[in-house]
Specification:
The chain is of the alpha/beta class. It is built from eleven helices and ten strands. The strands form two sheets. Strands 1-2-6-3-7-8-9-10 form an eight-stranded mixed β-sheet, sandwiched between helices.
């Protein structure tokens, strides 16, 4: 890739933080024979968030779930265009349906609240539709917990968190920024948090942009978001995590590097933590579908701390 092409590629990547393409919600919990409510609640800063509440009769335990970037509470339709083309080069060209996850959690005895992050799904626009890799999105995590604690039929429930990718970053940033909100939250399952620098440099590398140009990416992203790439990373925020945490990640994910999640995990200062590597694939999407196929480890973590 020549210099002009590299410049154009870097600017296109940076511009991707400016306006988030929304994917359609192609399913509901009814597809898994689950009763549910359509609910809405405000983020910490007032952005309206759209959600499903899936009740489990007789249970006083609640799992609050969010989703990766570009996804929504249904998942992501990467089996159809134009969403297929976004990630097909990495082998991530199949549908990710998150609704079976809610059935598994429901069958395990949990109420489920799952919401669209700002600028995705049916939730409202926030901060000019910027994506900040978890900084502004952390307000949505706080809003979901405050909603659960204020809603009459939920406010006495034991709370656990299940967050993925951007949603996982947002949860870690929220723990660092508003630690008091997480007092009493029993545990946290986090799928595939990621530093923007790592995933974007991998994208540039795979596209043939010389590594000597990677410094230009940081400047281009800052001109769009006002944040440097390392400011958006959850690596430093992980030092403030105080909730028992289970992280999992595709080890050989073509879009990231194992050292990124390993550093986040190492920075978590508590003893009650675990990190599980998914082996035998390079597809990031396999990390998002892993729970629906092999939920045992995650359910065991939840059972240990939610009891």
């Amino acid at each position: 890739m020549n210099d002009e092409q590299s410049t154009r590629m870097i600017q296109n990547v940076a511009n991707g933080f400016r306006l988030q393409p929304r994917a359609p919600i192609l399913g509901t919990p009814a597809d898994e024979n689950l009763k549910y409510e359509n609910v809405t609640f405000p983020s910490e800063d007032g952005v309206p968030l759209e959600a499903w509440f899936i009740p489990r009769n007789g249970s006083d335990k609640l799992i609050i779930v969010n989703h990766p970037r570009y996804f929504n509470r249904y998942g992501f339709p990467s089996h159809i265009e134009p969403w297929r083309s976004m990630f097909a080069a990495g082998g991530n060209d199949f549908e990710v349906n998150l609704i079976p996850d809610y059935r598994i959690l429901h069958e395990a005895g949990y109420n489920v609240l799952t919401y669209d992050l700002r600028n995705f799904g049916h939730s409202g626009d926030g901060n000019g539709s910027l994506c900040t890799s978890g900084i502004f999105e952390s307000r949505d995590v706080v809003g979901s917990i405050l909603y659960a604690r204020k809603r009459q039929d939920l406010k006495g429930m034991t709370i656990g968190l299940f967050s993925r990718c951007l949603g996982c970053n947002a949860t870690i940033h929220a723990m660092a920024r508003r630690p008091g909100v997480f007092a009493g939250v029993r545990c946290f399952v986090g799928a595939q948090p990621v530093s923007s620098r790592v995933i974007l440099e991998r994208i540039l590398e795979l596209a043939g942009v010389p590594s000597s140009r990677f410094g230009d990416l940081d400047r281009a992203v800052r001109l769009v978001t006002s944040f440097r790439l390392d400011e958006m990373s959850p690596i430093n925020a992980a030092k403030k995590v105080s909730v028992p945490t289970f992280l999992y990640q595709v080890h050989d994910d073509v879009l990231t590097r194992p050292g990124d999640v390993q550093t986040m995990f190492d920075n978590i200062p508590i003893k009650d933590k675990d990190l599980f590597w998914i082996m035998g694939t390079t597809r990031r999407w396999d990390g998002y579908t892993y729970f629906s196929k092999s939920p045992t480890r995650m359910l065991a973590w939840l059972e240990k701390y939610m009891s």
